[in-house]
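Morning F.,

Quick status update on the modeling queue. The single chain you submitted on Monday has been processed. Sequence for confirmation:
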Amino acid sequence: MDSGLKDTVVLITGASGGIGGAAARLFDREGAVLVLHGHRNLGALQALQEELTGENLVVSADLTEEDEVEHLFRKALDRFRRVDVLVANAGIWPAEDEPIHRMSLERWRHTIETDLTSVFLCARAFFRTLEKTKPDAAALVIVGSTAAVFGEEGHADYAAAKAAITYGLTRTLKNEIVRIVPRGRVNAVCPGWTITPMSAAGLENPAIVTRVLQTRAHKRVARPEDIARAIAFLSSDRLAGHITGEILTVAGGMEGRLLHAPDEVNPREA
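Structure tokens below.
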């Protein structure tokens, strides 16, 4: 089925990462025009740009800085005159497990700034852009996490930030976007464990993989392409034009997380 994304201007934050890169390749195949954001991993972003066949623009920005976010959207407008879709994908997952009683304020603030404040700034800049350009339709797709749905032990900072963008922002902004663009939509995609550079360290441990797969119906870890297809679907006004304010979990039927391995439980003490 034709997605209708041809010539749509799509801005993807964190395009140098696994999910962002997969989304860029898919949008490119669908004929979209791309604004590819990156910050530190610009080598990967340039390599991605060389793979793509359609028109695109690479812009570097620190998304926690207000003026740099404004610069990102200004560059997009200068080149393409509009932004139809924002994929708010950029973020971090601190690899080290730190229960909250041991977590530093510095780590908490860094994660909140990177995973929550950056999305606020990008969404605000996107909505301001829509006010200027008044397109017929527009979409914001926020990339959350199953940590927003189920929590994640040792990662309270990450779970809190992802829950804020997945629930608080998505369900508020779907009501605000229609004041600017009547056919505007805001949705969230929540990936589970996905094979990306960010998750590579954890997935190299067979015990962690086994534990992860015990929580879901499909006994495999997601690939970035699995998430990219969900993002593209929600970005398409033709395919998802009456879907807004929804949270789509892409995690192989995940129902929750095991708190204890079988050998950690004594039924006689239950």
